[in-house]
Write a structure and sequence with these properties.
There is one protein chain. With about 130 residues, the chain is α+β, with helices and mostly antiparallel strands. It has one domain: Alpha-Beta Plaits (2-Layer Sandwich). It is built from five helices and four strands. It has a four-stranded antiparallel β-sheet with strand order 2-3-1-4. A hairpin with a 7-residue loop joins β2 and β3. α3 packs antiparallel against α5. The N terminus is likely disordered.
Length: about 130
């Protein structure tokens, strides 16, 4: 009796797991991402946010667009948080993103800092991937 009950529990559990998984879950879990997202959140002086965005677009976005694998850069602004800026940068692969020479990044950042002339802070940096689908 206990063996039969245990078998029933295992069978029900297998059905629950199978039904709750997406149709292509195995492909999603085992596939290469279709793109990689670099997510950056900055604290900037609220009075200088528009200037910060314009200079970022002129210097950072223009520079990143010259590297292989760069796909897009989107700016998010949260209502009520005038001192924060979020950038969502899409890369074709993580390898292409990480292949940008550190010296290049430092030089771009130095040009940006000099053009901006006010301090800012990187609050968060995250990496996401979009599964191929």
């Amino acid at each position: 009796m206990v063996q039969r009950l245990l078998w029933c529990v295992v069978a029900v559990w297998a059905v629950v797991i199978t039904v709750s998984m997406p149709v292509n879950a195995e492909a999603t879990l085992n596939s290469q991402p279709s793109m990689v997202i670099e997510w950056l959140k900055f604290k900037v002086p609220a009075a200088n946010r528009d200037r910060y965005l314009a200079i970022d677009d002129e210097i950072w976005t223009s520079a990143l667009a010259t590297y292989p694998g760069f796909l897009d850069k989107i700016t998010w602004l949260e209502p009520g948080h005038d001192d924060e800026v979020i950038f969502v940068i899409s890369w074709a692969t993580r390898e292409q993103w990480k292949a940008i020479p550190e010296d290049d990044l430092e030089e771009i950042n130095q040009r940006f800092d000099e053009a901006l002339g006010v301090s800012y802070e990187l609050l968060e940096s995250k990496e996401f991937y979009v599964p191929a689908g």
